[in-house]
Specification:
By secondary structure, this protein is α/β, with parallel strands linked by helices. Helix content is 45%, strand content 16%. It has 10 helices and 8 strands. It is globular. The model has no long low-confidence stretch (mean pLDDT 96).
Length: 215
Amino acid sequence: MNPRTVFFDLDGTLIDHFSAIHRSYVHTLPQLGLPEPTLGQVRKAVGGGLEQAMLNFVSPEQLPVALSIYRTYFDQTMLDDVVLLPGSRNLLGELHRRKVTCAVLTNKLGDASRSLCQHLGVTDFLQGIYGAKDTPWLKPDRAFSDHALRALGRDSSTALLVGDSPFDVQAGLNGGFPCWAVTTGTHNKEELIAAGASRVYPDLLELGSALLAEY
């Protein structure tokens, strides 16, 4: 396959941020008179952007207040316990060394995504970090990946997306390139295969070994 552009999702793919995300929901929902969600409920909800995820817990009428509470708290605490998932740094470093264009394509807020990548020390391996509110689009809209490819000076014919959710798989399918998936995030192997993932691996360690063997 020898992809020359590799897009990475962030949450559940490159990083484990679920503790911080869950903590922010636990902070937010009781202020609206709603029960605290479990970590499992939050993991299941995320992937399509904060607004869509929050609607799993609040009504449309409650959404603006919930987002305001969540974002204020999240911005203050998001760096507290985020970690890179095993294999992330090595894979990004090896692809960078091999002159492969790597970028983040995420439905997480773009500003937060850039702060997290800087905090975790992987920004130098990335040629772009594209997230929510950077454009009018989110995954799986093709316009989002097309925008990123234009910004990078690349095209879809030699691109690959690495992700952990059906949103990622569909983003690849819509964009005209394959998605290799990992089960370190929100969905299991069967769900990712059913969504159309070209390959599914248990983690980035195995996916990275397979991907680097392509070069």
